[in-house]
Amino acid sequence: MAGKKIIHPNEAEAGQNRRAQVLEAAAVCFSKNGFHGTSIQKISEAAGMSPGHIYHYFQNKEAIIHALIQQNLGRAFEHLSHIEERSRVAGPADALVEEMRHAVRTRTDPRYVPLELEILAESARNRSVAKFFQRADRAIHEKIEGVVKAIPSSRGLSAAELEATIDVIVAMSDGLVFRAVGNPKMNKEEVGKLMQRVVRFLVEDQKS
Fold first, then answer.
1. Which among 8, 45, 108, 132 could disulfide-bond with 180, CB atoms 3.0 to 4.6 Å apart, if both were Cys?
2. Are 43 and 116 in a shared domain?
3. Are 43 and 26 in contact, with CB atoms under 8 Å apart?
4. Residues 35-84: tens digit of each pLDDT
């Protein structure tokens, strides 16, 4: 019986790098041409590799957009881990409020806005992408829920109120992506301050 092929660490790392190269090229192409205006051929040209190499790592374009959603989820989890770290020093309420100031900067970053909008648009059209997007959204929701539940004043919220509170927080953050397009000259400093006040009300004063 033939033994299993051994994948050496250097080979695995090279594969991961090529996969990342494809995702980076796809993100640029999707942002510029849209999902349906981008072919595997265009992605291969942008990545500097053959279409066959693309298919070695991804079955189709949909698999690529799934991977990009997962990549965005990883970026969101990184920000949420910062909230958890700050919670241990400043407390969960202050940590969550402070994150709103950072959200204004990160969610309006021109490097990510076009791709986020394209992913959202494809999620509205494609049931498979929508399901993947919704799973990622739920994972973010649960992370934020953990932070909110650690705030003593939030314990008076019903399950429905807690769910709505998190939806409002996420909606404010997601809405920044649209405002970055609708109003590129938005006063981010003032918007951030108001968002902080809203979040403070939601997690500390909502039931007072």
1. 108
2. no
3. yes
4. 999 999 999 999 999 999 999 999 999 999 999 999 888 888 888 888 88
Cβ atoms < 10 Å from Cβ of 167:
12
Q: Are residues 68 and 137 in the same domain?
A: yes
How do residues 121-144 score in pLDDT, each as one tens digit?
Answer: 999 999 999 999 999 999 999 999
Owner of token pair 């402070």: 98
Residue 37: which H helix or E strand, with range? Answer: none
Structure-token match 């041409």, residue found: 33
> Distance of CA 18 to CAs 13, 14, 32, Å?
9, 6, 21
Half-sphere exposure of 176 (CA within 13 A, CB side): 26
Alpha helix locations (H) across the chain? 9-33, 40-47, 51-57, 61-90, 92-106, 113-125, 127-149, 159-182, 188-200
Residue 168: give the domain boundaries: 61-205
**Residue appearing with tokens 């202050």:** 94
Helix, strand, or coil here: 3? Answer: coil
Q: Give pTM, 2 decimals.
A: 0.83
